[in-house]
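Help!! Second protein's tokens look totally different from the first
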Amino acid sequence: MNPLKMEPEPNGNIEALSITPGGAPKDGLVSAHTIDHDSWRQVGLLLVTGYSCGYILSFSNLMLVPLGWFWGITSLIMVAVFTAYSSWLLAGFHFINGQRFIRYRDLMGSLFGKEMFYLTWVSQILILLLTNMGFILLGGKALKEISLEFCGSTLRLQYLIIITGVAYFVFSILVPTISSMGKWLIVSSVLTFAYITILLVLVIMDGLEPTRLEPNKRLIIGYEIRGTGASKIFNGLCAISAIVTCNAAGIIPEIQSTLRMPAVENMRKALHLQFSVGLAFYYGVSVAGYWAYGSSVSAYLPEDLSGPRWAKILINSIVFIQSIISQHVFIAPVHEALDTKFLKLDKGIHSRENIKRLVSLRAALFTVNTLVAAALPFMGDFVNLIGSFLLIPLTFVFPSMIFIKVKGKTAKMAKVWHWAIIVLFVLLTVATTIAAVRLIVNNIAKYYLFADT
């Protein structure tokens, strides 16, 4: 079988047990969440809105300020191309020799052994938990900006982080799986388009008329890359790590598992949507923000806007609501693992037998994540470290390893290409990890537990 071309027809070996509404129990793979159910359009919307979340409001500062125009745009394009290719490649290995792999760790464990199973799973857990903590911090930041606009002062960030964590917890109970997000994805799509449109209009207006900026803002926009020669290189490597993070999350098989047949073809259609419409959204905001405000662009783009007060409130309100929906995509694989382990699989996910366990699992997870986000509101530096050390291999190295293992004997020329990818991105992993560690060491004096940033 050629996993790059065609998947087998579904049979008893590649179906799944589902205990969620919309997926009747079947024999085969076991999961507490729905498998083989969603359309490619639903998953495409999930990817577009998930990656166009409020995180993009920091991308101008994180990705383009350290790199400047030439290296910034070049890096954006190159990372997008390689990420799209690696995602497309990995989607093709959803079936191998008639077996369906609904989890990345199962795929790596089957091909490379128990050690790779655990390495993949630990990498995913760390990435997904830190991503969720970042979402909680993002929601708290949006609420703080709204409060400042209304009354000029605000509660401590930690209280707003707690409110965000509670909102995420409630949503995870009402919408427990990716497949149950259907109507919410439509809401998220409308919200995403609305806030990005308003944001771009205000940013472009500021860029065309620099005098509209507040007096304390620079009227002459500069794009110089700051720092010494060595610091420019290290900061640039951190920026590349951030670009990878904005394009991937290391959960392609888990998202693909929700798709109905043909799952490979449908996943690739969804990926086309992400790397066309989705890319235009989050790259568009990043480039516009850097163009309008230059090297002085804020780490949270709405802080720079000089538009009307109602627009800032509306943008931050939409970002907060949209983040409730978007964050669910990236924590769902953790929910799935816990639900499959602890829920009764012969009962419905909201049944009397399971609801107490569901609430307990979600409460424990969001309590820990909220506490860490409140204690470490500077965790962006650590996200860079985890992204460098773990996400680059998951996104680029592992798919090429899988190709060599499965197709290496019959595709010798392609094997050379994939070895080149492995070497290139292993070197990039080492370089970006060193840069991320250096950044943490340089900033360690600025870190304070429960800081009201």
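Here's the second one for comparison:
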Amino acid sequence: MGAMAITTETVPAAPVALAPIAPGLPVGPMGAADVACCAPLTREPLSAEAAAGLARTLKAVADPARLRLLSLVAAHEGGEACVCDLTEPVGLSQPTVSHHLKVLVEAGLLTRDKRGVWAYYAIVPEALNALSAVLAAPSGAIDRPAT
């Protein structure tokens, strides 16, 4: 019996209709990828459209299982993880883990690389950096007494 060829196929994230964080700016794959060019929340108020776009991105990470999956993928050897390595640590079924990973890919926070029958996921560092930049408060920007 001959050796079976294994193909590698990178599956791009499905286009997601997200609003730009600031009017007139193009929308990147995660919507919040455009966040890097925009002011942090503490510098200027968000428009309603920008808030809706950012909320969609935040919704992707607002689930404990998804946050755990992001952490597991980021900490995994080589910076990528097979879906087969992620089901046991989070204690969820493979279809549920795959769903959560799909949401993270659509949000632009992970990439997906199909290899044979398995999918491998990797963090998109720029997306996480952009998201953290929008949420960052410059030192001294918010000086309010604790209540």
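Reply: Different proteins will give different token patterns, so don't panic. The chain has one domain: 8-135.
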